[in-house]
Amino acid sequence: MNRAENQTLSACSGDSGGALAEPNGYSVASYERCAADYARATKPGTSEVERQALGNFLRVARNQGWILEIGSGPGWDADWLDHAGLNVRRTDAADAFVAFQKARGAKAEVLDVVKDELGGPYAGVVALHVFQHIYRSELPHVMTKVSHAIADRGAFLFSLREGSGDLVEKGESSGNYYTAMWQRADLVAILEPLGFREVWSSSVEDPDGRWLTILATKDGANEKERLAAAQLP
Fold this sequence. Notes:
Elements: H1 6-12, H2 25-42, H3 48-60, E1 66-69, H4 76-83, E2 87-92, H5 95-103, E3 108-110, E4 122-127, H6 139-149, E5 150-161, E6 166-170, E7 176-180, H7 184-191, E8 196-206, E9 209-218, H8 224-230
Parallel strand pairs: 1-2, 1-4, 2-3, 4-5
Antiparallel strand pairs: 5-9, 6-7, 8-9
Helix pairs in contact: 1-2, 2-5
């Protein structure tokens, strides 16, 4: 699972609404049914907004060790990071996305961020346009797992839907997608006790809604001089 843009919704989802009657695993099942369409809809790859976020991630992350990408989807963002010289462990909860990446020569593996161990320690973790599909009550647990997987002074970049409440996006043919919307202050309240400090954020609206992107460092309170030198835009 990667970014969601207007053409992606056309490929994978449709109207919003309905009751929350199933676990968020049905979002993964829906992506299994539309992975090829999703990959075509999001090609040629990383958007301008994501390039800015990933560029800032590069400036903060130490160029040592591996980067874990959660929700690689077709792998466009991982390609960008690879080309920038980083070693990326590509993972996704949907078998169909892993198969898509393998078919084009990339190494990828199935990983469910809610149920599976993440491994590590990693120099950084990237999870763009993924966490909105995780049940609201489970996100603090997932963030805790990420904090355990990141090395000290490592970087954490993620994005999700900004707003209030929960909804279900009904796919035209693929299925339903659980979406939790979050306020920045609520996310910071989860991150800070885990040793993360926000160093950059962005709030951008596209045809799907408003997306919040946060870049944080683990134990970032000790990183002020280096981050100032990074001159994040």
